[in-house]
Design goal:
By secondary structure, the protein is of the alpha/beta class. The chain contains 21 helices and 30 strands. β11, α11 and β12 form a beta-alpha-beta unit. α5 crosses α7. The structure holds adenosine-5'-diphosphate (ADP) and zinc ion (ZN) (2 copies).
Length: 735
C-alpha cells in the first residue's frame, strides 16, 4: 500500500486496561502531532477522548487491524512533556493504567473534549436605549419583548447560564436586540480575580526563619523538611520564599491538606502576594477548575494553591513547590489511582529542577528518615513565632476513676476554670455519633451492620442506627429485636453524646460540635469556624477535623478523651498517628498571649510513648518509633504493596489471591516476601468479603520488577473476573 501513513499514534485511553492503544492518524493528517494533545478515537463501539503519548513508525499490532483516529483536538499539548513524563512514571510506579492516570490529571471539561481555552461567560445588559424602549417597536416580536422586560428587571444583566433556563431559544431574539442597540453583549474571559494593589508586608523573620529562607536556593532541585510546631512561623517562611520566587518571575505550587485549604489561608496569601492566586480543590465547578488550570498553564497565576490533585497542574514558569502538613493522610489517594501527592511532588521538583519544601509540625517518619539519609535537608523552627508560649501537657490517670460520659472529674474542673476566664475549651474524641454500640441489657444482643463486620453507631439526633463503614442506616429500635426487652444500653460515647452532656453541665456556655455530621453541608464548617473566631467562652467538641491547622486564638484548654486506642491498634502506623494528633491538637491551644493547657486522659499513664509526647518533643518520639520500625523491618525500612480483593461470593477473594500468589511464585519473586492471602482486618464490608496479599521488599527495585509483569498476568487471569481487585503501592492503610 503506497498511501499507508508513515506513523502511528500511541494513545492513552480512559479504560482500566493496563496499556496504551495504537491508532492510525486521522484522514488528512500528514505530520505527527506533538505528544500531549487530545485525540478523539473510536473505542469499542463508542468514541472517547484520549491523549497522545508518542508517535511511532511501528506497531506490534498489524496495520490492517489498526483503526484510524477521528480528530486531533488540540494544536498545543494539554499535557506538556514534563507532566507526561511524571504521569507515565506514576502510572508505572503505582501500577495504575496510564489512561486513567492521565484522566485524573485533566480538568473534567478537557476530559470531555471541550476546547482548552477559557470557557466564555457571556452577559447581556440593558443599553441606555433599552431603558426607554418603546413597547410598540417590539409589538410584533414577543420574544424580544419578553427578553427586554427580563433585562429591565435585572440591572446586573443575565448570563448565558441564566438564559438557558428559558423555555425558548433566546439566541436569535437576543441577537436582534443587540443589533437594535437596546442590549449590550459582554464577554468575560478573565482567568482570575485581580491581585491586591498593595500587598501587606509580613512580620520581620526571626533568625531561625531567616536561616530557613536563606537555606533554600533560588533555583535547582533541593528537598527540604521544614519542621516546626504549629505557630512557629512555617507559613511565613513559605510566603517569603514565594515572594522571592515571584520576584524572579517564576511560579509557586503549594499543596495543602483537604481541610487546610480555608478562606483564612487564601486570604493570607492574597493579601501578601502581588500576583493572582489560582485555587484548585474539589469544591470547584468544572468551569472554575478549568479556568484555574489554564491560568496556571498560561503563567497568569503566580501561585497555585490546591489539594492533592493540584500536583498535576501545568506550570508555565515553575520555581518552587511547597507541601504543607506533609504528614497528612489526604495527600494519599485511597482509591482508584492510589498515588501519594507528597512523594510525587518530590519527583516533580526533581524533574523541574526546582527547590521543594515539605513542612510539618509532626513530620512523617518517611520524611524524617529521608533527612537522616541525606535526601532531604532539615530546617528547624524551634519556638512559637510572635511570642506565644507552648502549652503545658499533662496525662490524667483515669484508672478506676468514675467518668461521666467519658470525662474525668479533673478534666471537668479544669474546663470550668478556663470557661470562667472567658476562654474556649476543645474536647477531642475520635468518634462521631452518640454511642458506638447499642446493646440489650437483658440478652446481650448488639446492633450490628448486616453488610459489614461492624457495630452500628447510635445517632440520637436523627434517631437512627448508622454504619460508619458502608453508610447503611435504620431506625433506632425501641425494643430489643432478639428478646423484646425495652432496656437498650448505649455503650461508649461519641461527639454527640459528649456535646449533649457538656451542654447540660455548662448550660450558660455554647457547645459547638464539629464532625462530619455537622459539617456535611457546604459552608457549614466555615460557619462554625467563624463562630469560634468571634471569641467568647465556648466548648468545641470534635473529631480529627479540629486538629488541623486552624488558628483559634481564644482556645486555652484541650482535652483528649481516648488517647489509648493509638497504643494498641493492629495498624503499625497507629502510634505515629496518635503522636501527630496529640501534637497537632496541642498546637491549637494557647496561640496568642494566653498560655494553653493540654490534658490527655489515659489508662496507661506510664506508657513511654505517651510520656515522650508530654515533653512535646516530637523528634525524640519519632526516633523511638523509627527504631521500632527498623527492628520490625517496616516502612520506611522496607517497601510494601498490598493486593486487595473483594467479592459478594465469600470464597472468591481468597481463591483469587491464592492464584495471584501462585503466579508470583511461577514468575519468581526474588527479594520480595509474600504474606497471605489472608482475610482483611474487617473481613466483610458493604456486603462484600475482603481479603489481601501483602508484598514486602527491602528495596523498591525487586518489588517493581515483580509488580509490572505480575499484574499484567493477573489482569487476564480468569479468577480475576469473579472479584474486584486493586493494588496499593506504599499503602498507608492496611485494610
Ligand atoms: P505555622 O505555619 O508554623 O503554624 P504561621 O506562619 O502561621 O505558623 O505563624 C503563626 C503566627 O505567628 C501568625 O499569626 C504569624 O503572622 C505570626 N508570625 C510568624 N512569624 C512571625 C515573626 N517573625 N514575627 C512576628 N510574628 C510572626
Ligand atoms: Zn435482648
Ligand atoms: Zn456497614
Amino acid at each position: 500500500m503506497t498511501d499507508s501513513p508513515p506513523f502511528i499514534l500511541r494513545i492513552a485511553i480512559p479504560t482500566p486496561l493496563r496499556r496504551s492503544f495504537d491508532y492510525l492518524p486521522p484522514k488528512g493528517l500528514t505530520a505527527p502531532p506533538p505528544p500531549g494533545v487530545r485525540i478523539r478515537v473510536p473505542f469499542g463501539r463508542g468514541r472517547v477522548v484520549g491523549v497522545l503519548l508518542e508517535t511511532d513508525t511501528r506497531s506490534e499490532v498489524p496495520r490492517q487491524r489498526l483503526r484510524p483516529a477521528l480528530a486531533v483536538l488540540d494544536d498545543e499539548p494539554v499535557l506538556d512533556a514534563e507532566l507526561l513524563l511524571l504521569l507515565r512514571w506514576a502510572s508505572a510506579y503505582y501500577q495504575h493504567p496510564i489512561g486513567e492516570v492521565i484522566q485524573q490529571a485533566l480538568p473534567a471539561l478537557l476530559r470531555q473534549g471541550q476546547p482548552a481555552r477559557v470557557p466564555e461567560a457571556v452577559r447581556y445588559r440593558l443599553a441606555d436605549a433599552g431603558r426607554t424602549a418603546d413597547e410598540a417597536t417590539l409589538a410584533r416580536a414577543p420574544r424580544q419583548r419578553h427578553l427586554l422586560a427580563m433585562l429591565q428587571a435585572q440591572p446586573a444583566g443575565l448570563d448565558s447560564a441564566q438564559l438557558g433556563a428559558l423555555d425558548f431559544d433566546w439566541h436569535g431574539p437576543m441577537q436582534r436586540l443587540v443589533e437594535r442597540g437596546l442590549v449590550t453583549r459582554e464577554t468575560d474571559t478573565a482567568l482570575l480575580p485581580e491581585p491586591v494593589a498593595s500587598p501587606v508586608t509580613g512580620p520581620e523573620p526571626n533568625p531561625e526563619q531567616q536561616a530557613a529562607i536563606d537555606a533554600v536556593p533560588d533555583t535547582g532541585y533541593h528537598g527540604f523538611l521544614l519542621d516546626g510546631v504549629t505557630g512557629s512561623g512555617k507559613t511565613e517562611v513559605y510566603l517569603r520564599l514565594i515572594e522571592r520566587t515571584l520576584a524572579a518571575g517564576r511560579q509557586a505550587l503549594v499543596l495543602v491538606p483537604e481541610i487546610g485549604l480555608t478562606p483564612q489561608l487564601l486570604q493570607r496569601f492574597r493579601e501578601r502576594l502581588a500576583t493572582p492566586v489560582a485555587v484548585l480543590h474539589s469544591g470547584l465547578n468544572d468551569r472554575e477548575r478549568l479556568r484555574a488550570w489554564l491560568a496556571a498553564r498560561a503563567g497568569e497565576a503566580g501561585v497555585i494553591v490546591g489539594t492533592r490533585s493540584a500536583l498535576f497542574t501545568p506550570l508555565a514558569r515553575p520555581g518552587l513547590i511547597v507541601v504543607d502538613e506533609e504528614h497528612d493522610l489526604s495527600f494519599k489517594q485511597q482509591d482508584g489511582f492510589r498515588y501519594s501527592a507528597r512523594d510525587l511532588a518530590l519527583l516533580r521538583a526533581r524533574n523541574l529542577d526546582v527547590p521543594i519544601v515539605l513542612g510539618s509540625a509532626t513530620p512523617s517518619l518517611e520524611s524524617l528518615e529521608n533527612c537522616a539519609r541525606g535526601r532531604l535537608t532539615r530546617l528547624h523552627l524551634s519556638g512559637r513565632a510572635g511570642g506565644a508560649v507552648a502549652p503545658e501537657c499533662r496525662l490524667l490517670d483515669v484508672r478506676s476513676q468514675k467518668l461521666q460520659e467519658g470525662l474525668s472529674a479533673q478534666l471537668l474542673a479544669r474546663m470550668a476554670t478556663h470557661l470562667e476566664a472567658g476562654n474556649q475549651v476543645m474536647i477531642f474524641i475520635n468518634r462521631r455519633g452518640f454511642a458506638p454500640v447499642l446493646m440489650c441489657h437483658a440478652c446481650g444482643w448488639h446492633a450490628r451492620c448486616s453488610r459489614c463486620d461492624a457495630h452500628m453507631t447510635v445517632h440520637r439526633r436523627t434517631n437512627r442506627l448508622r454504619c460508619h463503614h458502608c453508610g447503611s442506616e435504620r431506625p433506632l429500635p425501641a425494643a430489643c429485636p432478639a428478646c423484646g426487652s425495652g432496656e437498650l444500653i448505649h455503650m461508649g460515647y461519641g461527639t454527640e453524646r459528649v456535646a449533649d452532656f457538656l451542654a447540660g453541665r455548662f448550660p450558660e456556655v455554647p457547645v459547638l460540635r464539629i464532625d462530619r455530621d455537622t459539617t456535611r453541608r457546604k459552608g457549614s464548617l466555615q460557619a462554625l469556624f467563624e463562630r469560634i473566631h468571634a471569641g467568647g467562652a465556648q466548648i468545641l467538641v470534635g473529631t480529627q477535623m479540629l486538629a488541623k491547622g486552624h488558628h483559634f486564638p481564644a482556645l486555652t484548654l484541650v482535652g483528649l478523651l481516648d488517647a489509648d486506642y493509638g497504643l494498641f491498634s493492629a495498624d503499625f502506623r497507629a502510634a505515629e498517628r496518635l503522636g501527630q494528633l496529640v501534637l497537632q491538637v496541642a498546637g491549637r491551644a494557647g496561640r496568642a498571649e494566653t498560655p494553653g493547657e493540654v490534658l490527655i486522659q489515659t489508662h496507661h499513664p506510664d506508657s513511654p510513648l505517651l510520656r515522650s509526647l508530654l515533653r512535646q518533643d516530637y523528634g525524640r518520639f519519632a526516633r523511638a518509633l523509627l527504631d521500632e520500625r527498623r527492628l520490625a523491618e517496616l516502612p520506611p525500612f522496607s517497601h510494601l504493596a498490598l493486593l486487595r480483593a473483594e467479592a459478594v461470593d465469600p470464597a472468591a477473594p481468597l481463591a483469587f489471591l491464592a492464584r495471584a500468589r501462585e503466579l508470583a511464585e511461577q514468575q519468581g519473586h526474588a527479594g520480595v516476601e509474600l504474606f497471605g492471602p489472608m482475610p482483611s482486618p474487617m473481613e466483610r464490608r458493604a456486603g462484600r468479603t475482603r481479603a489481601q496479599l501483602l508484598l514486602q521488599a527491602d528495596a523498591r527495585a525487586p518489588l517493581q520488577a515483580l509488580l509490572g509483569p505480575w499484574l499484567q498476568a493477573l489482569e487476564t487471569d480468569k479468577t480475576g473476573r469473579r472479584v474486584r481487585w486493586s493494588i496499593d503501592v506504599d499503602p498507608l492503610e492496611m485494610f
